[in-house]
Amino acid sequence: MLYDAYEVQKSMFAGASAMANFGAGVLQNPSNPFAYFGGGPILASALEVFAHAAAPRGKPEFGLDHTIIDGREVAVVEQVALRLPFGQLKRFARQGVEHGPKLLIVAPMSGHYATLLRGTVERMLPFADVYITDWRDAKLVPAAEGKFDLDDYIDYLIAFLEHIGPNEGAGGTHMLAVCQPSVPCYAVACLMEADKHPCRPKTLTMMGGPIDTREAPTAVNTLATKRPHAWFEQNVIATVPMTYPGAGRKVYPGFLQLAGFMSMNLGSHMISHWEMFKHLVQGDGESADATKDFYEEYRSVCDMTAEFYLQTIDVVFQRHAIANGSYMHRGRLVDPGAITDMALLAIEGERDDISGLGQTKAALTLAANLPEKKKRYYMAEGAGHYGIFNGSKWRTKIAPVVEEWITAHG
Question: What is the helix (H) or strand (E) element at residue 74, kind and residue range?
C-alpha cells in the first residue's frame, strides 16, 4: 500500500507542478504588466520554485559528448560495453585516443542513478579510458530475473572487470569506488587477489566508504544499528505496483531513501530553496539554475532490491562483517589479508556526515599483508560527502591525488 499511496501522491504533485509552471510562465510573460511590478515577480518566483520541487523525474542523461586532452577537443561516445539484468557496464570512449589507463568507476546502488557521478566521470576523462557501473532501477527489472543481493553485486563487478580484460600493458586497469560500493569493491579485491585473477585491478581507490562503521559513527550508522534487522524489513520494504515491469518485486523505494537523506539536512535544503527563490526574484537566473541542476540530479531516484538493501544493513552496518573478518561470499571467507599486491588509496572528507572519518581508512589497516608503500590515505580538508567526488575540491585537490596514485602504480 505504501508504494501505491506514493504513486497517487506523485500523480497529484505532477499536475500541481504543471499548473504552477504554467502560472509562473504567465506571470513572467513580457506582455503581462504584472511581470514588472507589484507581487507578480514574487509570486512567479514562488510558483517556479514549487514547480521545480514537485515535478516528477526520470533517469538523467550523462550528456558527456566531448573532453579536452592536451588542449584539443576530443569527441566522447557513450557505449554499453556489457548489459546484465540489474546493471550495465558503460564506457565513455574517447575517439582517436588510445593511451591512458583503464578506469572502472563503481557507482553506488543507493537510490540515485550513476549520473550522480557525472562530475567524477567528466574530470577523469582527459586522464583515463573511463567505464562506469550503471545500475538499473529495480522496479523496472521483471521479477522473473530473480534476486539481486550484495553477493550478486560482487559477482557483477568481477564480470565487469573480466569484460574490460586482463590487467596487462602500460596503465593497466584500475577501480574507483564512491561511497557504498567501497565495501563490495574491497571484497572483490580480497577475492581476486587470493585467486591471482588476471583481470584484477592494479589499484583500488575507495572514497567515503563504510568499510568499518564503528569508526566515528554518523547519523546514518546510528539509524542502522539502533533498530533490529526485522524493523527494516517491516518498515522500509515495499512491493512494486502493477504499473511497472518489476511488479511484485520487493524493493527499498528510492523515494524513501531520498526522504531519509532530505530529513537529515532539512534545514540546509530549506535554505537552498529559499536562496533559489531570492535569486529568481532578483533576476539572477544563473545562480538559481545552479541550485536547480543540483536538485534535478539529487531528486532523481530509483529503487534497490530488498535483498541487497537488507543484506547490506546486516553485513556492513550491524555485523561489521568485512571489518571483523567474518564476511562469507558464497561460502568463501573474504580475507583482507589476501591483498598483497593491489595498491590501495583511501580518501575521506573532513566534513563527511555519511561516512565518518576513519571508516574508509580502516581498509588500509585490515590489509595487513600489503606493503606500506602500496597504501595511501588522503583526507580532503573542508570536503563533505558530496564534495569528495563532485565540485571544485574534487576537481582541483582530490582528482590529482587519484591520478598520481594510478600513474605511480600503473
Answer: strand 72-84
Question: Helix (H, G, I), strand (E, B), or coil: what is residue 82?
Answer: strand
Grid cell in block for residue 119: 562530475
Grid cell digits, residue 50 = 514549487
- The predicted structure's pLDDT at residue 43: 60
Beta bridge partners of 226: none
Q: CA 311, CA 66: separation in Å to the nearest integer?
A: 39
Task: Give the type of residue at 19.
Answer: M
**Cα(370)–Cα(156) distance, integer angstroms:** 25
Q: How far is 291 from 273, CA to CA, in rounded Å?
A: 8
Instruction: Tell how strand 203-207 and strand 173-178 pair up.
Output: parallel
By CB atoms closer than 10 A (0-12, 13-18, 19+), residue 403 is middle
Divide the 410 residues of the chain into consecutive groups of 10 and give the mean pLDDT of each group.
60 57 59 60 57 62 93 95 97 91 93 90 96 95 95 97 82 90 97 95 96 86 81 87 91 74 56 54 63 63 91 92 94 96 97 91 97 97 91 95 94
Report yes or no: 394 and 116 within 8 Å, Cβ to Cβ. no
Q: How far apart are CA 15 and CA 18, in angstroms?
A: 5
Looking at residue 166, what is its pLDDT? Answer: 86
Mark 364-392 as b/e (b = at least 16 C-beta within 10 Å).
Answer: bebbeebeeebbbebebeebbbbbbbbee
Instruction: Tell me how many degrees the CA angle 272-109-265 measures, rounded to the nearest 5.
Output: 25
Three-state SS string over 181-225 comes to CHHHHHHHHHHHHHHCCCCCCCEEEEECCCCCCCCCCCHHHHHHH
pLDDT of residue 99: 81
Residue 369 CA to residue 377 CA, distance in Å, equals 17
What amino acid is encoded at 90 in this protein? K
What pLDDT shows up at residue 254?
Answer: 80
Q: Measured between alpha carbons, how far is 325 from 104 in angstroms, rounded to an integer?
A: 26
